[in-house]
Amino acid sequence: MARGRPRKISTKDALHSVMLAFWQNGYSGTSMNDLSEASGMAKPGLYAAFGDKEALFEKALLHYFETYGGPVFGRLQQARRHFIDDFRDFLGAVADLTLDKSTPSGCFLVNALVDCTYGSERHQELVNGLRESRYTAIRERLIKAVAAGEMPSDADVDRAATFLDGQFSAIAMLGRSGASDADLKIFIETGLGALPVCGASRAMADEPETPILRQ
Fold this sequence. Notes:
Elements: H1 11-25, H2 32-39, H3 43-50, H4 53-78, H5 83-99, H6 108-115, H7 121-147, H8 157-176, H9 181-193, H10 199-202
Helix pairs in contact: 1-2, 1-4, 4-5, 4-7, 5-8, 5-9, 7-8, 8-9
């Protein structure tokens, strides 16, 4: 019996599989053979579609940021709710992704920052640039909070943005190390409680679904 044609794999599906492989094992821990096996594409096909391993890692990082970061940061930038609620949703989305059993643990971007085994100096610049984009989005939301009277006019926006950016990374690391959903919710609510909020505006923020910090 004649064999059927091998299944054609789309470059989008292949790139997603490549991203998952790098996310799981890091740059240095992932070989081209691993990427070929994960994507279902022969190495010549991977080279033709994406370039070498360094180019694949770069494209995988950008794919991750667009796939998982885009929707989350888009909602944050819309500023439709009180800023505390927006950041609760933002950090909650990070926690959900971190604990999602269908993806590797942690955050690919945070893992790459911690791993520090980049294929080239360009990769380090890319990772740092994506982290800076994250920080900028957080800071811009805080600026809107000040303009809306949700935060005091003399609030140190840069310090608050650095704090929240750190919360983002910490959640990813805690989830990777085995923290539970309840652990991360406590961590998020504790962090939100440290932010400067105008008294009249605090009542506008929704209470968390479970008042986990109250006896």
